[in-house]
Amino acid sequence: MVAIDDRAISCVGVRKQFVLRHTRSMKEALVWLIRGRKGDLSKKFDALKDVSLDVQHGETVALLGLNGSGKSTLLKLISGVLQPDSGTVLTRGRVAGLIEVGAGFHHDLSGRDNVYLNGAILGMTEAEIDDKFESIVNFSEIGEFIDTEVKFYSSGMYLRLAFSIAVHTDPEVFLIDEILAVGDEPFQRKCIAKIKELAARGKTLFVVSHDLDLVSTICERGVLLQHGHVVMDGDVHEVVAELRKRSNVL
After folding, report:
1. How far apart are CA 209 and CA 65, in angstroms?
2. Stretch 54-64: mean pLDDT, rounded?
3. Reading across the β-sheet that carries 7-21, which strands appear in turn?
């Protein structure tokens, strides 16, 4: 990761485009061939367009917007899962993310083996994992299933173990994408309490969620995306009110 003064995250002029499809109708393909293969048959979608924002170390930020606004794409760029087509994304410190349930898990390995695998991916040493292993298992409530292959886990079990590993890496930057929608209510409350604990310890939180009441209690700042652009950046309550107005949510 690149040190950038007191910023935990810095995005400058970020653009990301996806190809939705490579071919169109037979008629369009024939015209394309007749014209000597001139032009582009693929349909493209700009998920993010010239996005710039800075997140200071210790800030708690809710990334908000309607479906298709680019929230998850931006989170994946910050986590390093994706790379921007143009612009720069820089982070400082250890970054842990809950972007997709079970992402990074090897289905044919046991929960125990995946703790070590994911811990290593997230930057922990084997000694650190050894030291925190019991705490990881206890928090996840996996119990005796820790030595079962994870392909037999439910989505809730995936969540509990993935969340537990991520928070035990003691990250400077914690990224969360709708992950709390999975799992039972008691564990969700446990996760929320842990997230608030991280915030109280001065960790940087960057949260994507459709639960506007939840993000209003966890985060202080809101960033509103619309069609790949940042259209509002400020107090989370003001940004949530603006999103409710735009989406007619009462």
Report:
1. 9
2. 95
3. 43-56, 7-21, 86-91
Sign of the C-alpha dihedral, residues 27, 29, 35, 41? positive
Least confident of 40-49, 90-99, 133-142, 204-213: 40-49
The C-alpha atoms of residue 191 and residue 169 are separated, in whole angstroms, by: 15
Element (H, E) at 117: helix 111-121
- With respect to residue 192, please indicate whether it lies within any of the assigned structural domains: yes
pTM summary value: 0.81
Averaged pLDDT for residues 103-107: 78
- In a domain, residue 174? The reply is yes
Does residue 1 lie in a domain region? no
Q: Does residue 2 lie in a domain region? A: no
DSSP E strand stretches across the chain: 7-21, 43-56, 60-64, 86-91, 95-98, 173-177, 204-208, 221-226, 229-235
Give the containing element (helix H, strand E) for 127: helix 126-140
Residue 75 near residue 91, CB atoms below 8 Å: no
> What domain range is 136 assigned to?
7-247
